[in-house]
Amino acid sequence: MQADENSSSTSLCLPPCWKCSRKAVKYFRCATEGCPGPANISASSQDIIDNRIALCKQCAVRCPFCAGAIRQEDLHSVTDRPATLLSCSTEGGGGEGSAVGPTAGIDLQTLEEFNLQLKELADKVQKRMRALSTELAVSASGHPEILELLEQARKLVDSLDQQGLRPDGVTYQWLISLHARAKDKEHVEAWAYKMENCNKCSTDAYNSVMFGFAVPQGIDRADMWFNRMLAHDVAPDVKTFAILIQACAASRDSTRASRYFQRMQRFGIAPNVVVFSQLISACASEDHDPRSLQKAEGFFKSMQQSGVEPNNFTFMRLLKACANAGDARKASQYFNLSVEAGCVPNVVTYTQMVSVFIKNGDVAGAERWFSKLEAAGITPNVAAFNSVIRVCGTAGDVKHASSWLEKLEAAGCHPTEHTYEALITSVLYHKDFVGADRWLQRMLDTGVPPTIKIFIILLKACEHTGNLCQAEKWFNKMIEAGVQPDVQAYNSILKTSAVHDSFGRFRVRQPTCQEQRKWFLKMYEAGVQPNEATHDILTRSTCLPIVSAVASSVAAALQSYSHRFCSIGN
């Protein structure tokens, strides 16, 4: 029987696999000459001997008549689908005991089909995470829809194991990618370690691992996996460095991003538009660095000199850097340059242009660009309205901020935590604590989940006035709202216990020292790790004995935390 690789198993009328006696989805023929074939096969199946067609996928790579397992390149499918064999299937050798029987109730599949299903699940996770990130104020990784997709992946892996199939490099790649897209860092690393143990490492898989740590404060872990990648002799590619630089951007570290860029060049890898865009993004993420725009423009010039064409994302990050610097003139130049480059401005582009005026509180400039958005026939979204309200907040323009809130609601948009953050900022500009409390209560009453950032803004407003009573009220409201205070919140309320003198030093009275001690102990009991700022706040307060005791407590606490975290690391 002579059959080509495009024939179907039905047209071939193949008997069951002679090794495990079951019907298979695919059958293979061995291209290796000299294979003796099965000695005890019936004459009616002589055609199988002639073409060395014998086995289903599980048995084909364990041919008992060859010196070793058949290599992947020696097998050719005789069914309607291309052969997909896993390179790790040689483990365990041949023999009767190595055959895996069918599992009841499970449709037999090929590894190729499993991998395709994992890819489809990973794409669904990515699509849903993007949608949820725009809909929810909190992380979408724990959303029921995402958890359901992860459960489907788990069941798929169980089915893979039940059918006796072993993951190949592609399987690990998509399993890691799926969990990385879901921001499930624990399972990302678990599958990455399994991949290394099975020696199925690949560049794409390691890229997926590092992508899982392209999140705030994730760069150290991403760098660790980059070093493991090199230790396993897996070569990085341009995507590897783009992801590492993206992790730097998420961690607001443009210096480290520059180092990865230099290292990429030493590897002889040419940067592409993604790499340059992420470098600019890393600069734009440093919103408190006055040189962020200058550094971003430096990378943009390097990009132009390299002949790499910028895209819409490139210009968006440049506009973000301009917004950080409050440079409306340069922002307008880059906006025009993006249009000349063929980028079509959308609602996000115009919103970013409005945001350029936040730093200087230029309400007229923000409203002018918002009018351009409407003139372009683009429907503004809640982010566009929020940007104008934030400009009003910076300027302390309570009247305009309230009027833009009315426009937002009239447009059918719902206020978010960013909306109320801007409204609270506008009244705090005038030290109107009553007005701020009113907006906070309205936000809670309307069911908008507050973030810790809003409470930090409220607490910081109490620092320079020493209004400890109001600070305690907002601190308690934060806990009631289910928001866990962090070290910044505790540091703020510790500062509120003191009043600055004309030289910027803390002028503290004895009762205030007692308050500081009380709040520091609360911080310690809550398990919040004090930092250097905590130590500085207390030691700069005064030389009174009680504050010295507090400072000693801080030093002891810092040492205790240090020992604890070092032991965890070891």
Automatic annotation (TrEMBL):
Extract the NCBIfam families matched here: PPR
Coiled-coil spans are 108-135
* InterPro entries in UniProt: Mito_RNA-Proc/Resp, PPR_rpt, PROP1-like_PPR_dom, TPR-like_helical_dom_sf
Q: What PROSITE patterns does the record point to?
A: PPR (PS51375)
Where is the PROP1-like PPR domain positioned along the sequence? Answer: 242-409
Q: From the record, give the transmembrane residue ranges.
A: none
User: What is the official name of this protein in its record?
Assistant: PROP1-like PPR domain-containing protein
Does Repeat count among this protein's keywords? yes
Q: Where are the PPR repeats?
A: 237-271, 272-310, 311-345, 346-380, 381-415, 451-485
Question: Organism's domain of life?
Answer: Eukaryota
Query: Is this entry keyworded Coiled coil?
Result: yes
The record ties this protein, via SUPFAM superfamilies, to: HCP-like (SSF81901)
A GO molecular function held by the record: mRNA binding
- Species in which this protein is naturally found: Symbiodinium necroappetens
Q: What's in the keyword line of the UniProt record?
A: Coiled coil, Repeat
